[in-house]
Amino acid sequence: KNFDGKKLDVLGGLHRTHKTFSKFKTLDLFDVSISLIEALTTLRNEIPSLVIGDFSAMNVLVNKQKEICFIDMDSVCFSYYRCNVATPGYKAYETIISNNNNLVFTSKSDDFLTALITFSLISGYHPYSNNAGKSLDSCVKSNICALFNDQYKQYKPTLDIDFHDIFDTNVLDIYKNFFVDGCIHPYKRPSLDELKQALINNKDSLKQCKRIKKHQYLSQRCPYCKAKKLYKKQPKVKINKRSIQLKGIKPIYFNSST
Predict the structure, then answer these.
(1) How far is residue 199 from each of residues 54, 160, 214, measured CA to CA in Å?
(2) Share of the chain above pLDDT 70, in %
(3) What is the DSSP letter of 161?
(4) Burial class of 47 by CB neighbour count within 10 A (0 to 12, 13 to 18, 19+)
(5) Of 8-17, 90-99, 130-139, minimum mean pLDDT range
(6) How far is residue 24's CA from residue 219's CA, in Å, rounded to a whole number?
(7) What are the pLDDT digits (tens) for 51-110?
(8) Angle between helix 107-123 and helix 26-46 axes, rounded to 10 deg
(9) Which residue did the predictor score with more confidence, 246 or 111?
(10) Stretch 183-211: mean pLDDT, rounded?
(11) In three state form, how does the secondary structure of the chain look?
(12) By percentage, how much of the chain surpasses pLDDT 90?
């Protein structure tokens, strides 16, 4: 069956700026994240022991109806899987510390990566982003999550949009349990059902920006409009266009009644 969709890494990416935020409706990013969890849950209901393994935003397509399609699923196995392929930036702790030629994947690894993908999609930032030039995988291996752990706040990068203005405390606590407490302890990670329900509740609490229809948020002031104003005040700097990951990418316009 043909599936006309775009990869999630094009929609969200790991390095979104205030300009690319304006291309996507916040509610749609929540809906796509919820659909991703539902799609994986459906697969697991059919095949309870399924493990995707090499799982990233590049393995997921989404169409205008916010339906999900998994692609490049040659790493799928059942119960427990060893494979020598994993995408940089999309590795769970247990995968990183295993032998590079014999990587370990479990359903808990898939859970961790699902949380990583959904957080990155909605917030625009990889949860292990940092200002110290450390690789994302090395931060996972060392359990350095500057966005959620004040112990490493010196590594926290400057954020165009503060994700605390988008996520409620329940969602933030669940993501923290994935990326801090559950990083090196897989069985401390929350369930995807918990994450899904929290995202649904969070989505229902979002406010509508009075100026821009695509902007929804929780804070008193629209963080997207605030970021746009701040950037307008800064002097213009010439940038190498090829260095911008999402330059020229056209957004998906979702079919939505919201």
Answers:
(1) 24, 22, 18
(2) 80
(3) S
(4) exposed
(5) 8-17
(6) 18
(7) 898 899 989 999 889 999 998 887 777 766 677 778 899 999 998 988 766 777 889 999
(8) 170
(9) 111
(10) 97
(11) CCCCCEEHHHHCCCECCHHHHCCCCHHHHHHHHHHHHHHHHHHHHHCCCEECCCCCHHHEEECCCCCEEECCCCCCEECCEEECCCCCCCCCHHHHCCCCCCEEECHHHHHHHHHHHHHHHHHCECCCCCCCCCCHHHHHHCCCCCCCCHHHHHHCCCCCCCHHHCCCHHHHHHHHHHHHHCCCCHHHCCCHHHHHHHHHHHHHCCEECCCCCCCEECCCCCHHHHHHHHHHHCCCCCCCHHHCCCCCCCCCCCCCCC
(12) 56
The model carries a pTM of 0.85
| Neighbouring residues of 100: CB distance < 8 A, sequence distance ≥ 6 | 84
254 confidence band (pLDDT: 50, 70, 90):
very low
Relative orientation angle of helices 192-204 and 107-123, to the nearest 10 degrees: 20
- Residue 142: both structure tokens together: 């060392």
Q: Which residue shows structure tokens 């009644």?
A: 257
What the block records as the tokens of 54 is 């090499």
Q: In what order do the strands lie in the sheet with 6-7?
A: 6-7, 60-62, 68-70
At position 81, the amino acid (one-letter code) is Y
Assigned token pair, 181: 């407490």
